[in-house]
Amino acid sequence: MTTSIHITALDGVVNVNSLFTFAVFVGLAWNPRDPNNSLIEDQICTPDPHVMEDMIAFHIYSFSSFLFSSIVALGLKQAIRLSSTTSASDSIVSTFLGHVNKGLVRVGMLVAGVGSAIGCVFLMLALINVVQIKLGTLSCESGSGHSVAAIVPLVILVPAALLIYVSIILYAFLRS
Questions:
Q1: The pTM is what?
Q2: Does residue 37 lie within any of the structural domains?
Q3: Residue 24: in which H helix or E strand, if any?
């Protein structure tokens, strides 16, 4: 039963990472230099190129984190499945693989969860830069009302969700 719970949890990590990775690719495919794709009315509120560079960098960082987390989760899942399907007649595989160390599985699940959480933080930072590119910089006095209104739910809800996610991961790590 514990093995199926671990595999289900690892499947969840991989599925969520896949959705976020798709979001990263959509963000990278968007052209921030398209003059018709901006809602900024005052040219003073236009962000400098540094904001656009940060947006791309944060997308890459989040993609790397999600990919790292998914690869760790898939590796653990494969190790669990291989160790549970080896039979006594298959001496080469069972001698090579043996049993999966429960502590190693726990640490691997923790690492996969932390990788996903870090990817979410970088994706949130990339989205903050997207908002600044589309609606104007946060420091702009004349047009920042829409930018701040768009960013406030993002910086409240995402960290709250991450706090819940990390709490559950730590609880599962300490209890499994």
A1: 0.77
A2: no
A3: helix 2-29
